[in-house]
Amino acid sequence: MIRTVLCFLGLLIGGSQGVLQVSISLKKVELSVGESKFFTCTVIGEPVSLDWYNPQGERMVPSQRVALHNEGVRSRLTLYNAKIEDAGIYRCQANDAQGHTQEATVVLEIYQKLTFRDVRSPQEFRQGDVAEVVCDVTSSPVPVVSWFYNNMEIIEDTEKFQLLQNNNLQVQRVTKADEGVYRCEARVEARGEIDFRDIILVVNVPPVISVPQQSFNATADYGESVTFTCRAYGSPEPDVTWHRKGVQLQESERYVMRARGTTLTVRNIQQDDGGSYTCKASNKAGEVEHELFLKVFEISYTHQGHIYLIKIFPDGRVEVRGRYGESILTIVGVKLSDWGRFDCEALSRIGGHQKSMFLDIEYAPKFQTNHTIFFSWEGNPVNISCDVMSNPPATMLWRREKLTIPSEGAGNMRVYSAPGRSLLEVTPMSDRDFGRYNCTARNNIGMRFQEFILAQADVPSNPYSVRLSSVAQRVATVTFTKPDSHGGVPISHYLVKYKDISSQDWKDMKSQGTQTVVLLTNLEPNTTYEVRVAAVNGKGQGEFSRTESFQTLPIREPSPPSVQGQRGVGKAYRLGLVKQDDGGMPILEYIVKYKTDKEEQWMTKLVPGVNDFVLLQPLQWNTQYEVEITARNVKGLSEPTFVKFSMPQKPDITADSLFSGLGLGAVVGVGLAGLLLLLVLVDVSCFFLRQCGLLMCITRKLCSKKTATSGKSKELEEGKAAYL
Fold it and tell me: In angstroms, rounded to a whole number, what is the distance separating the alpha carbons of residues 599 and 602?
C-alpha cells in the first residue's frame, strides 16, 4: 500500500513539473511620458520559446525604443522614452516542447506629467490694451489651472480679470497698477501633482512729450546758440532723437545733445537754421513727436549806424521789425487764433530778459450749434439749447412771437443759464406752444440771433416689406424694413402682432430694442397665421404694416437621425444621437437594429426619444457591426440612418493567464491544497477497501479494546509513520 501511494505521488509530482509557470515582476505600472521602464518575465519549467506581445497582439521585436534580452527561463523587456500610445496590456508567452502555452500580463498606464510649454516671462503689454497673459500647460488628465496675484487667488471673472477657456488670464484695460508677478498654478487632482510658473507682467506706457518753450528767436551770423528742451515720459524710458527736414540730427560741433538727448543746442546760428525742429520720443509702446520752432532774424539794412531787422511770417499777416533796443510786432487781419500771450525776449552774451504781453480779441457773438429743430408732444418737456461764443460775454434772451420770455421763466417755460449757454425748457400744453422760438445774444461788439423750431412729434409711420423666413412647424422668423419716418422721436421698439387666421385674438411679440428681426414661437403646425408690425416711440404706437399671411409646415415624420460613434467600455459601444428635425412633434422613440456583418438576423433595441445616446451591449470582440437607426414620432417613422463600426480585439487578460496573475506563493499553495485533498481520498479508499491507513488507525485507536496484540499496535504505528 505504501509503495502504491509513493508511486502515485511520484507520478503527480513528475506531471506537475512538466507544466509551465510564467510570472512578471510587475503587474501594473504607471509611467510618465518620456520615462523608461523594464519588465522581467520568469518561467518555471522548460520553455522552448519566450516571447513578448504588445497591446495590439503583435509579437515584439527589438527596435530603437524596444529592447529584448533573453536568458534561458528569463526575459527582460525594456521600453525607452514612453509615449501615450504605448499604454495597454503586454503579454509574456512561453511555449514548451509539447506545444503547451502559458502567459503572464502586465498593465502599462501612460500619463502626461504637468508640462508648461513656452511660458514666457516677462510678458509685455501696452497700457490701455486688453492683456492676455499666456500660460500654456498640458497633462493627462487635463489639469486644473488657477491664477494668483499678490498672493491671492483670482477666483471668478471681474471687471478687471477674466479666466479664459484656454487657461489664459485676460486683464482688461491694463495699467501700470496691474504690473507684478502673476502665478499660473496647475494641478492634477488624481495624482496630487502640482506645478506653477511665475509670470512677470510688464505694462509699457506710450511716450508723452513736455516742451517748456515752443519757439525761439535768434539772429544769424552773430555766433548765437539756442537750446531746445524736450522732456519725454513713458515706460520703459523713451529714447529721444532730434530731426530736421526729415533727417535725424547727429552729435557734431554745431549740434550738441545732453541729458540722454532731451536737450538740443544749436551753435553758431546761421540763416538756414531757422524753421522747425522735431523731437521724437519712442519706446516699445509707441512713438510721439513734437515740433519746436526757431525764428532766425537777418540784417536787412543799415541806416545812420543803426542795424534794422525784418522778419515776415509765411502767411504774410505777421511782421516783426526791429533794431537793437527795439522790436515791433505787427499783425494784419487779426483772427481769433491770434488770441493769447506773446513773449518778447532780449538776449545777450551775458544773459537775457523776457516780457510777456497778452492779446485780447473782442468779437460779436457766434452760435455754436446747427441743431435748430426739436420735437415733443403735449405734456412732454423738451430742452432747447442756445450755445454762444463771444468776447466780451454776451447777454442772452429768449423770445416767443416777439414777446420776451422772462429769465425766471413763465407758465410752462423755464430758463436756465450758464456761461455761454442758455437752456429753454418748454412743456407743451397745447398746439399753441409749438412753433418758433428766438435766442438773441448781444455784447458791445454786436448782436446776433438764432431761430429754433419746436415741432409737434408724431407716432412713427408704418414699417414695410414684412417677410417670413425659416418657417417650420412651430417657429417662424419675421423680418421687416424700418419706417421712413420716426415722427421726430427715436423708435424704442417694434410690436409684432400675429394670430391664427380662424381666431379674432391677436398675440403680441416685442422686438429686442430696434432690431427688425423677430422670432415667433409656440406656433401650431399646419396652420395659417396673419402677422403685422407697428413701430413705437415716445409719442406712442404708429400704424400697422400691411398684414401678411403664412402657413406653418404640417406635422411629418422626423428627419433621419444624426449619429456620432463613441467607443464604450468593455463589450459595449455607445452611439451619440444628435438633436434633429423632429417633424413638429417630439421623438417618441428610436428603433435600433444591429447585427454582425456575417449574420442575417437583426437584433432590435428600443430607446426612449429623450435619450441622447444608444448603448449596445454585450457585443463580440474583433467583430464588425452594422446598425440601422430609425426615429419615430406620432406621424410615423423617419428614413433610417446606417452606421458601421468595429469592436476591438479581446483584451489580453485571458482565462489562460488566470494563474499567471497570481504570485508564485499562491500557485504553490493551490498545488499543496490539491495534493492534500488527493491524500485524503486515497486514505478513505484504503479504509473501506483494505481496512488500513491513517483513518483506520484513528478508528481502532478510539474504538478497539486495550487487549489488542502488540503486533497489531506495531503495524498500526508503522502505518501512521508511513503517512506522516
Answer: 8
- Residue 168 exposure: Cα atoms within 13 Å on the Cβ side: 14
The CA angle 464-469-472, to the nearest 5 degrees, is 140
- Grid cell 494563474 is found at 659
How much is the mean pLDDT over the chain?
84
List the beta strands (DSSP E) in 245-367. 247-248, 255-258, 263-266, 275-283, 286-297, 299-303, 306-312, 318-323, 326-331, 340-348, 351-359, 363-367
Q: For residues 462 and 536, what is the distance between their CA atoms, to the nearest angstrom?
A: 10
Neighbours of 328 (CB within 10 A): 9
* Cα-Cα-Cα-Cα dihedral sign, residues 202, 204, 205, 209: positive
b/e for 151-169, b at 16 or more Cβ within 10 A?
eeebeeeeeebbbeeebbb
Query: Is the separation of the CB atoms in 371 and 451 below 8 Å?
Result: no
What the chain holds in terms of domains, given with CATH numbers, is 22-111 (2.60.40.10), 115-204 (2.60.40.10), 211-297 (2.60.40.10), 299-361 (2.60.40.10), 363-456 (2.60.40.10), 464-551 (2.60.40.10), 562-646 (2.60.40.10), 664-723 (no CATH)
Is-contact 211 231, C-beta < 8 A?
yes
Find all residues with CB under 8 Å of 700, minimum gap 6, and list them: 708, 716
pLDDT band (50, 70, 90) for residue 469: confident
Q: What is the pLDDT of residue 12?
A: 42
Q: What is the pTM of this model?
A: 0.40
Confidence of residue 247 (pLDDT cuts 50, 70, 90): very high
Residue 469, beta-bridge partner list: 477
- For residue 159, report the phi and psi dihedrals to the nearest 5 degrees: -65, -25
What are the C-alpha distances in Å from 357 to residues 266, 322, 344, 391? 27, 17, 8, 18
Place of cell 536568458: 71
Instruction: Provide the sign of the torsion angle of the four alpha carbons 623, 626, 629, 630, taken in this order.
Output: negative
The strand pairing partners of 145, in sequence order, are 186
Cα 412 → chain centroid: 56
pLDDT beyond 90 at 218: no
Higher pLDDT residue, 92 or 563? 92
- The distance from CA 283 to its chain's CA centroid, rounded to whole angstroms, is 30
Say if residues 234 and 259 touch (Cβ distance below 8 Å): no
Burial 352-389 (b: 16+ CB within 10 A, else e): eeeeeeeeeeebbbebeeeeeebbbbeeeebebebbbe
Q: Are 104 and 660 in contact (CB under 8 A)?
A: yes
Per-residue pLDDT tens over the stretch 504-536: 999 999 999 889 999 999 898 989 999 999 999
Provide DSSP, 629-687: EEEEETTEEPPPEEEEEE--PPPS--GGGTGGGS-HHHHHHHHHHHHHHHHHHHHHHHH
Give the span between the Cα atoms of 558 and 539, in whole angstroms: 48
Distance CA 642, CA 562 (A): 10
